[in-house]
Amino acid sequence: MVCSRLEDAGTGLEILVVQLQDAANRSRLVIRRTEKKFLQNRGKEPGHAPGDLHLISTARRHSLLRSFCDLHDTASSVADTLYQFATHLRYVEDLSGLSAFAMKHLLLRERMNMVLIHGDDTDAELLSRLCSGIVSLSNPWYEGRGRKRYSHLPVFRAAGELHARYYAAVQRIAVNVKNMTPGELAAERTGLERTCEQLTSAIGELRRYVERLMEADSDGRLPRKCDVLLAPGNENLRSDKCAGRT
């Protein structure tokens, strides 16, 4: 739920950034046209100026240019800030997804520890209750956004393989725990702990990678090409008027 809302907020900010950048591009175009007309008519008599430009005094034209420049600078600055904020939201969503992935795994590990501790207990009801909470632990972030953004990383794929291996062992124990000897339970517990350490390490490495990306992007500024602003899947938000402007 949190990740979904973060993604919605990030998408909304991206739309706003594109609109602000489009406004900045429009103001830049007006500035250039006004400057061009001003330079073309410098020194000419007011009556010879084309259009209605002669109706505006030189001081007023300078003031108008300054106002447009201020508007352009403000819009660009706000767009830069919102772009960085939207970028941070995307990375915060990824970090939240990784935290949920790790937390579900840790909760599963603690439940399995209880199952292994009570494996030779004669209270079948207690054992059944402990095993009943072991259900599919598919992670929406990992299977969705995480896979789209980080599936090229070996550590990301390794984390998925380790999780699948851990869950398979958990299911095996949950089904056969009543028939296992103390030695078999101890061996399974050792294997689970080893896989747990490897998975925790992989998730930690992924978190550090995402944090480095967020830190690197925090020093950047908004790209001036509108296409760059659009996240994958949001290409339909592109403004035709914005495309091609610099």
TrEMBL record:
Highest taxon listed in the record's lineage: Bacteria
Name of the featured protein: Uncharacterized protein
Organism for this UniProt entry: Salmonella enterica
